[in-house]
Amino acid sequence: MKYNLDGKQGVKRFGKQVIKRFDKQGVKRFGKIQWLLWGGLGVMIFMFVVAPGLWPFDPYEQVLSEVLQGPDASHWLGTDQYGRDMVARILAGGRVTVGLTLAITVTIAVMGTLLGIMSAYMDGFMSRLITLFINVALAVPSLVFALAIAAVLGGGMGNAALALICVAWPKYARLARSLTLQVKAAPYIKIASLQGQTKWGIFYYHIMPQIAGPLVVTAVLDIGVILMELAGLSFLGLGAMPPMAEWGSMLSLNRSLLQTAPWLLLAPGGAIVVTVAYFHYVGENLRQYFDKI
């Protein structure tokens, strides 16, 4: 594909040429991804933001006369050892678990990407310093370090989120640095520089569009990993504290009742599996889409 890189006009012509390459299957794939992404997000917003206000039971109200009641027409997923409705707790827990997971993923993706780009795009001492910082962070066992940070800071979802942010950003920095160096060495970047474009213009118009796809795919695929790690910290008592409704802490609280009241573990466990599978499926579709355009 031949194109002239002369700033905004060059980018527009390049975009038009890329669009012409999209076949019908590519358009269908993009439409499918949009439906998966926005449809799934719409369902989650309804379930975790709207539905808790519509559901007739309070996730924290204890009804001792309905302790360990199995699923029925009134309590669709039964009740726990304090008589609390499990549907209400799953919905409230989803707001905490999924909402905080998305916030953590966005934070580590932005922070890691910026540091990776700076280390690759800058010259001199700062570039070497940032690169050294990234390499040191990559050498640390992430899960062990997260457990240590969460234990030192104490319980709580905020501390658990901070622990995961401290250990999860290096993968984005490494990927962003590698992609930026690869694109930076391309011939058309040198051509753009010779045409008088500034470093900011080259980065904004030529480098960022090239590296955005892999970074977005990595972030979407990473949502499921972050969700399981966050739930894992709560399961170990380093995340959500009772009586907060959170999927990991619900598994931990009810693990001794697996044989007598299995619905108490199947409900939060199933919610985790479905959510992780959804984001993994969307991420895989995004990866296949970017690979074929």
Q: Could you please describe the fold and organization of this structure?
A:
The protein is an all-alpha fold and 293 residues long. The chain has a single domain, classed as MetI-like (MetI-like fold). It is built from 11 helices and no strands. It has helices at residues 8-21, 24-54, 86-121, 125-139, 142-153, 157-168, 170-184, 187-194, 199-235, 247-254, 263-292. Helix 3 runs parallel beside helix 6 (157-168) and helix 7 (170-184) packs antiparallel against helix 9 (199-235). The two termini are 13 Å apart. Mean pLDDT is 86; it is low at 1-6 and 10-24.
Largest sheet: none
**What's the helix count?**
11
Task: Give the beta-strand count.
Answer: 0
CATH topology grouping: MetI-like fold
Order of helices and strands: HHHHHHHHHHH
- As residue ranges, the low-confidence spans are 1-6, 10-24
Q: Considering DSSP H and I runs of 4 or more, what fraction of the residues is helical? A: over 70%
Count of the domains: 1
Radius of gyration, rounded? 23 Å
Specify the CATH class.
Answer: Mainly Alpha
* Class computed from helices, strands and strand pairing: mainly alpha
How much of the sequence is in beta strands?
under 5%
CATH architecture: Orthogonal Bundle
Mean pLDDT: 86
Global geometry: elongated
Separation, N- and C-terminal Cα atoms: 13 Å
Tell me the name of the CATH homologous superfamily.
Answer: MetI-like
